[in-house]
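Recall the central idea of this unit: under ordinary conditions, the amino acid sequence of a chain determines the structure it adopts. In this exercise we apply that idea directly, starting from the sequence alone.
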Amino acid sequence: MRRLRQDADWLVSVVLLASVAVTAVTGVVADVWDLNDFWYHTVAGYVMGLAAIAHVALNAGRLVAYGRFRIRRQPRQPPVTRRERHEPVSPGSLARGFLSRRGFIGLAAGTAGGWLLGRGLRPSPAIASSSDVGVIYHEWSKPGIVDALGTLTNWGRFPPLYKTYPGAPRIALPRPRVDGGPSAAQAILARRSVRHFSARPMTLEELSRVLFLASGISADSWGHARRTAPSSGALYPIELYAVVHGVEGLDRGVYHYAIREHELELIRAGDMRSAVVEQGLSQEFLGECGAVLFLTQVLQRMRPKYQDRSYRYGLLEAGHIGENAYLAATSAGLGACGVGAFMDDAINAMLGLDGVEEAAVYMLAVGHPRGA
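Accordingly, the structure predicted from this sequence is:
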């Protein structure tokens, strides 16, 4: 019975040590990649907890005895070593020490750790010489377990979450109306890309509604602002700019949407219709709509956390915000059309961006449909 108890204690110790290692590794992975429901981490945590309870139960007598010893403060005699007994150390004793319970546990832990690291060391992806840069980026940004260690390297500091233009004239937007209109299901069914717009200008209220529902702050939870579009790690790398062609109460020009204050910042005044059409590959409706929304990506907002996958996540979020803008326009009786084909450098220059740390990735025309 004693031998069986010792075997059970040894097995539980092995399971406990292995589960601690797996829980630590999966915890790092879950934190680095923002996995809120990582099944492996959850299971490893439960196994670790059960193993810890079993370990305490099997060693309860020792723990109680040691507790009593510490309370009574009885002096403890040091153990007599082999050298003090003047006994030679034989090769057999060394082998037995190496293959002892502790040695085997250490060997098992090292094997498990090496296996986990080996799983994360993925070989270089096989990329055909004729592949485009998109395929190359997609392959090289695939994660592995060891890639989680990249979070220990210096990917730079996080920039401010809210971009501002100090000294720029500000225009307060009306409080957005979110009541009325079709249901979400009806707006989804009615949504179409509109490429024919009337000369009727948009109202400031309509522009306010579209901007707010696209990516405005919808809630504040314990000091953490939440927006209408999801974001990996709540880092919000997408900025919004509105090039206004025809909006009542607004001069034509380039505006930045100050999300935190729900205001517009004028960064460049003037009629940009011909420039936007030219930079949008001569698509005339880009100069006929009420406004063109430009979505830009600030890469450094995500790099310190998501590293090579930052660009992937930023494009996904541009898609979330673009669809929000589509549905917001549809629910307000407006039309919208997303455009991905444009001259990047010219658009970035018009918006005052360097095209490297922040660059335009998407544009949407918004306005009153022709004949509506």
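The chain has a mean pLDDT of 85.
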